[in-house]
């Protein structure tokens, strides 16, 4: 059964980016990344990735320059800027919660909500995310862009599973 999954990293104090939108706090020299089998198993189920244009730009200009990591699945990028689609990347100029039913229909496999907040929040508010996989990075930011602006926790069961990774990160899985 297809699921819409938010799989994201967050600081201990609940932020996904600094105030300016950067993610340099995900400094892998401070907290080494251990690619877990959990991620590999998760990614093998993904048929599409969904993200905002800022997240897309961070991936393509900072994190994976010249090596877009999601070429093997369909990408849906939400933007207000005119952009040219490719075979594997579709740019959308509509709210994420409006587009998601069409994305579900066009996708074989799970849908990974990569980020950022402008994509995540409308999906949270409309209860359109089936599973939350949140990896807490052992870093305090103090301020920045929160993962959730608002969240109705009554819609979800409590922690379904938690996994401690060897680098001090903890991954929590919540299901509705």
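Sequence proposed for the structure above (176 residues):
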């Amino acid at each position: 059964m297809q699921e819409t999954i938010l799989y994201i990293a967050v600081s201990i104090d609940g932020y996904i980016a600094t105030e300016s939108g950067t993610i340099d706090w995900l400094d892998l020299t401070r907290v080494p990344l251990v690619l877990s089998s959990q991620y590999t198993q998760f990614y093998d189920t993904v048929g599409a990735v969904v993200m905002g244009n800022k997240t897309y730009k961070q991936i393509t200009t900072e994190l994976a320059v010249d090596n877009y990591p999601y070429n093997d699945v369909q990408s849906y990028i939400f933007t207000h800027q005119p952009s040219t689609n490719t075979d594997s990347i579709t740019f959308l100029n509509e709210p994420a919660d409006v587009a998601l039913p069409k994305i579900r229909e066009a996708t074989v496999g799970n849908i990974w909500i990569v980020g950022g907040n402008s994509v995540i929040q409308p999906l949270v508010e409309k209860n359109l995310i089936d599973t939350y996989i949140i990896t807490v990075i052992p870093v305090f930011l103090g301020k920045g862009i929160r993962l959730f602006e608002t969240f109705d926790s009554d819609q979800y069961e409590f922690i379904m599973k938690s996994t401690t990774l060897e680098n001090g990160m903890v991954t929590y899985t919540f299901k509705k």
